[in-house]
């Protein structure tokens, strides 16, 4: 079975390939959450527990800074003239995952209480594949 995906726009200087994508199931859930919460963003930290799953927040609710990397941006995600849905990762985590392409998917189960999908009985999940081009 082939999974079609939506690739994010390239955001890292000097690169010409997308590092992050969404599965159709992720797009469907995100559109539902966008309708309820407004513009959204992802942040992938690292470490144990819920920190190893991508967290989805209302845009701007999670403050990013110099210790974070913008890996991708899904422009006009919820329609024309809507803000982009950005995917951020902690710089430390990016150092470990710099050789992978990340696909955000959805699975049944309860994720973190801080991520907006938690009440839906679903959670976002990262599926990674090794990139076959130099990084």
The CATH topology corresponds to: Hypothetical Protein Aq_1857, Chain: A
Q: Kindly report the average pLDDT value.
A: 87
β-sheet strand percentage: 25-35%
Instruction: List the domain count as a whole number.
Output: 1
Query: What structural class should be given to the helix and strand makeup?
Result: alpha+beta
Q: Going across the major beta sheet, what is the strand order?
A: 2-6-7-4-5
| Series of secondary-structure elements, N-terminal to C-terminal | EEEHEEEEHEE
Any idea what the shape is?
Answer: globular
Low-confidence stretches: none
- Tell me the Rg in angstroms: 14 Å
Q: Sketch the major β-sheet.
A: 5 strands, mixed
Number of strands: 9
Helix content percent band: 10-25%
Text of the CATH class: Mainly Beta
- What is the rounded distance between the termini? 29 Å
Oligomer: single chain
- By DSSP (H or I, 4+ residues per run), the number of helices equals 2
**The CATH architecture:** Sandwich
């Amino acid at each position: 079975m082939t999974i079609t995906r939506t690739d994010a726009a390239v955001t890292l200087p000097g690169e010409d390939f997308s590092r992050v994508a969404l599965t159709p199931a992720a797009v469907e859930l995100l559109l539902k959450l966008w309708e309820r919460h407004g513009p959204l963003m992802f942040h992938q930290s690292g470490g144990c527990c819920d920190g190893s799953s991508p967290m989805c927040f209302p845009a701007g609710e999670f403050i990013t800074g110099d210790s974070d990397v913008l890996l991708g941006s899904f422009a006009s995600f919820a329609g024309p003239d809507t803000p982009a849905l950005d995917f951020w990762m902690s710089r430390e985590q990016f150092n470990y995952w710099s050789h992978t392409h990340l696909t955000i998917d959805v699975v049944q189960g309860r994720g973190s209480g801080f991520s907006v999908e938690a009440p839906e009985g679903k959670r976002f999940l990262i599926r990674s594949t090794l990139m076959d081009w130099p990084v």
